[in-house]
UniProtKB/TrEMBL annotation:
InterPro entries: Prolyl-tRNA_editing_YbaK/EbsC (IPR004369), YbaK/aa-tRNA-synt-asso_dom_sf (IPR036754), YbaK/aa-tRNA-synth-assoc-dom (IPR007214). Keywords: Lyase, Protein biosynthesis. It comes from Liquorilactobacillus oeni DSM 19972. GO terms for molecular function: aminoacyl-tRNA deacylase activity; lyase activity. This is Cys-tRNA(Pro)/Cys-tRNA(Cys) deacylase.
Length: 166
């Protein structure tokens, strides 16, 4: 009988374990499959609007001031609205070329879990996710996610809810 290959946990899954937060490991290839990945999630009974992307922004005050916004994959950000909501003059997308220096993650693997613990950046969640008991965020690797209780995750990362789009 062949041995089942055990998948090594990511650092972000270990953080959830340390805080006794239950999660389900999922594999979700948004970058490779796009809309097809959303259809696969829906076929598995997961509302696509509960699958979040993690966007790193920079404020206008200082080049090194960053924040994180998590929102459903299919939604877009309104940077002017976010700046207004945060009482900032402007916010900008962080430079993808230097993302690994900023967060420690490559594009597509950024997660509020590790960024909060390691970098201490403020974490914001699209207020439209409040209705979901469970949400999915990256587990710190491209294509790998964790499905976790929304309120527990927000509490863990000291997150706040924010209006990110009209």
């Amino acid at each position: 009988m062949a041995k089942k290959k055990k998948i090594k946990k990511t650092n972000d899954e270990r953080i959830l374990d340390q805080h006794n937060i239950q999660y389900d490991e999922t594999f979700f290839d948004w970058i490779g499959k796009g809309q097809q990945a959303l259809l696969e999630a829906q076929a598995a009974g997961i509302d696509s609007k509960s699958i979040l992307k993690t966007i790193v922004l920079r404020t206008s005050k200082k080049e090194k001031d960053h924040l994180v916004v998590c929102l459903p994959l299919e939604y877009e950000l309104d940077l002017k609205l976010i700046a207004h909501e945060l009482n900032e003059k402007q916010v900008h997308l962080a430079d993808n070329k230097t993302l690994i220096k900023i967060t420690g993650y490559v594009h597509g693997a950024n997660t509020p879990i590790g960024i909060s613990v390691r970098k201490g950046f403020p974490i914001y969640f699209d207020e439209r996710i409040k209705n979901f008991e469970e949400i999915s965020v990256s587990a710190g690797q491209v294509g790998r996610s964790v499905r976790v209780n929304q309120k527990e995750l927000v509490k863990l990362v000291k997150g706040r809810y924010l209006k990110v789009q009209e």
